[in-house]
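Hi R.,

Quick one: here's the DUF3180 domain-containing protein sequence you asked about.
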Amino acid sequence: MRDETQRDQIPPEEPQRPETGSIALTSSRAVAVAFLFGLLIGWFVVLAANALGALSPQVPWSAPIALLLAAGLVGILAYGTHQRIQVRRSFVEPHRAVSMLVLGKTAALAGALVAGGYLAFGLMFVGRWEADIPRERVIRSAVSVVSGIAMTVAGLLLERACKVPKSEDDEESDSPHR
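And here's the predicted structure, written out as tokens:
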């Protein structure tokens, strides 16, 4: 009996609302750090190959082409997401929006990392431009750098396309006059 009366005296807990969080947009600092890490990795690859007496790897044409295709797909996704969220203000399922946001962040940082890596790799061979193989490495690295930058830009655009515009209710609550 006593347990029943104690249960009656305990007020029922209010259902807890999940906290609404937000994810910050990728900062220019994060992109710059990824680019610098890429520079270090690209430079280290050439130094390690030279130290081991091995040939530095060739840059296949498939690398910049794959990067450009990926950047194009992310760019198309950014455009579609922008149209859906910003222009038409359609509902997007939360898990889908978060997935797009994560893809945008990943593309931006990976593009910066790859661009930095190929830049350092290509710069290591600029001094030997007269020879065919180093010239090929420089040219293909330069195209890969441009592809990496395109991937970074597309990722940042997708990330910003996921930003939910303020609703009229939000704008009214921000105004000092109610």
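The radius of gyration is 25 Å.

Cheers,
M.
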